[in-house]
Amino acid sequence: ISINNGNSTTSDPNVTVTITLVSGSGTPEKYMISEDALFTDSVWVAYTSPNISYTFEDSNTAGIKTIFLKL
Questions:
Q1: For a 10 Å CB count at each end of the chain, is N or C smaller?
Q2: What digits encode the pLDDT tens for the residues 17-66?
Q3: Concatenated DSSP letters for 22-56?
């Protein structure tokens, strides 16, 4: 998984998460993405591309943020 083509930092709350699948692992049908490790307010979304657009919820606060992804 990489964010913004592997950039180590960004100040933009809008990011692109890219999923690189292991050869032979198949293609997922759905995914969840969240800033919450428990995925409390997340829903399953159809997986149509390895590039997922995501906007951080609390984009007005600077600092380290974490994204969780479930396939």
A1: N
A2: 998 888 788 889 999 999 899 999 899 999 998 899 988 877 667 778 88
A3: PTTS---SEEEEESSTT-TT---EE---SEEEEE-
